[in-house]
Amino acid sequence: MSSARSASPLFVTTRWSVVLAAQNGGDDERALETLCRTYWYPLYAFVRSRGHSVADAQDLTQEFFARLLARNYLDAVSRERGRFRTFLRMALQRFLANEWDRAQAKKRGGGDVLVPLDSELAERRLRDEREDAIAPDRIFDRRWALTLLDDAAARLEAEYAATGRDAEFFALKPHLTAGRGEIPYAEIAATLATTEGAARVAIHRLRRRFRESFRQAVADTVSGPEECEAEMQEVLAALGNR
User: Fold this and answer.
1) Predicted structure pTM score
2) Which of 3, 5, 194, 196 would be a feasible disulfide site paired with 185, CB 3.0-4.6 Å?
């Protein structure tokens, strides 16, 4: 079996394909709204990094989603290939540069909230990162990468929950990225009422599945396997940029 063929299940429904399908309306618009709920934080962080206040960043992010969901931007999408990360960032840049009418600021708090934004949480994360001197594009890419990590962890948690292994997941999760010499196997074994050998196997399986889950999260944001590796490298590079 060829590598492209074996990798194809990753790309049955990508974020990009959902964007294109949403041009036709229907249930796909609901799917697009779900994507906005997933990826709002990188966009909010980008807006804040451009010097906008918390309140204005909330307004701008909500209005961007409103126009995106209304297909103002989707009407301009003419290709079936690309990276969802790049598409959203370019669309947001275009929006900030050309399409925000500040007269709408008077409507703050009075319109429909399309995507709930936890600005207090976002602000705490932004302060913790201390990225004031980093270019907005790099901030967006790093926020995007961290969002993909969260997505991968959420997928993995759901997978364990579906098989009744919630307790195992939460016992192992704190050690997901720990160095091999830092993992307290005896403590984990005691928590799970198993042996140290079994705890080692459980950690190994969790790490392997997390890598697979992360790759799936990245694959969902590109149009095909030929772009996945390049996107993986860029996402990992963004995680390494401090």
Assistant:
1) 0.71
2) 196
Q: Which domain holds residue 13?
A: 3-240
As a dihedral over the C-alpha atoms of residue 44, residue 217, residue 149, residue 91, rounded to 10 degrees, the angle is -20
The number of CA neighbours under 13 Å toward the Cβ of 50 is 18
Q: Of 62-71, 135-144, 172-181, give the lowest mean pLDDT range.
A: 62-71
SS3 24: helix
Please give the helix or strand (H or E) that residue 222 lies within, else none.
none
For residues 20 and 191, which has the higher predicted lDDT (pLDDT)?
191
15 vs 206, residue with greater confidence? 206
Number of separate domains in the chain: 1
Whether 17 shows a pLDDT value over 70: the answer reads no
Cβ neighbours of residue 141 under 8 Å, at least 6 residues apart?
Answer: 42, 85, 234, 235, 238, 241
Q: What is the mean pLDDT of residues 65-70?
A: 74
* pLDDT tier for residue 174 given thresholds of 50, 70 and 90: very high
Burial track 198-223 (b if 16+ CB lie within 10 A, e otherwise)? ebeebbeebbeebeebbbbbbbbbbb
Burial class (CB in 10 A: 0-12, 13-18, 19+), 224: middle
Check residue 130 and give left, alpha or beta (phi > 0: left; psi -120 to 50: alpha): left
* Percentage of residues of the chain with pLDDT beyond 90: 27
Lookup result for tokens 């790490």: 207
Compute the half-sphere exposure of residue 162: CA atoms within 13 Å on the CB side of its CA.
6
Give the Å distances, CA to CA, from 83 to 185, 224, 234.
40, 9, 11
